[in-house]
Amino acid sequence: MRPKIYLFGDSITEESFGAGGWGASLAHHFSRTADVMLRGYSGYNTRWALKVIDTVFPTEEDGNGDPPLAVVVFFGANDACLPDRYAAFQHVPLDEYKENLRSIFSILKRRWPTVLILPVTPPPIDEAARLLHPYIENPSGLPERMNDTVGAYARACVDVAMECGTIAADIWSEMQQFPDWGKSFLSDGLHLTESGNRIVFEQVIEKLRDAGLCLEHLPVDLPLFSDIDPNDPLKVFG
């Protein structure tokens, strides 16, 4: 009954339906008009995303191939892991990252020509906080990501979006406009606080609206309570 909006990304997407999460906020925002479908995979980079994309998204042969309204593509934080640090196995070189984003765009557009694809840049990195939150042993004592490096991936994401004729939500730049952004928006130097989730939600909603995808243009799935005639309640249901 309702069209779909898919969220395709890494742990920042996987966690987005938690309390105060940006995905949960999207689901609430589009309630009665679209179903927000979570497809987040912790630790994944664009190389791995391409390996699973045909499994992640339904086809007509699956009996569920109706085109979604949009796919939010949110990778890059893991691609940007440094190749000489403890998370090197997640690293994807910058040029390959760009090509992978192009491929993701092309695959989704071939499947659903009308779909809106919204890339989201990785968030900025608080390097000092990352040292306090290694997820495996860190023998070098150095952060596995650097903010300047992640910035290059964020700019690449924006560039690929422009190449593909779409727009990107540049949260790397947006978050750093605020003082004390590391503590305000990041819980461990990478993942989002409730305030960080709010920034992502607001950026995604703004970009979707700029592309014409907003509540004002979407019909509700069933009659609203205000449309029901108290003297003939069943009339509105035909």
Describe the structure.
A 4-stranded parallel β-sheet has the order 2-1-3-4, sandwiched between helices. It has helices spanning 11-14, 22-29, 46-56, 94-111, 127-131, 147-163, 171-175, 181-185, 194-210; strands at 4-9, 35-40, 70-74, 116-119. It is of the alpha/beta class and 238 residues long.
Helix content: 25-40%
Task: Tally the beta strands.
Answer: 4
The total of helices stands at: 9
Question: What are the low-pLDDT stretches, counting only 5+ consecutive residues below 50?
Answer: none
- Write down the overall mean pLDDT: 95
What is the total domain count? 1
* CATH topology type: Rossmann fold
Largest sheet: 4 strands, parallel
The percent range for strand residues is 5-15%
**Mind telling me the CATH class?**
Alpha Beta
Q: What's the layout of helices and strands?
A:
Elements: E1 4-9, H1 11-14, H2 22-29, E2 35-40, H3 46-56, E3 70-74, H4 94-111, E4 116-119, H5 127-131, H6 147-163, H7 171-175, H8 181-185, H9 194-210
Parallel strand pairs: 1-2, 1-3, 3-4
GO molecular function: hydrolase activity, acting on ester bonds
Keywords: Hydrolase
Protein name: SGNH hydrolase-type esterase domain-containing protein
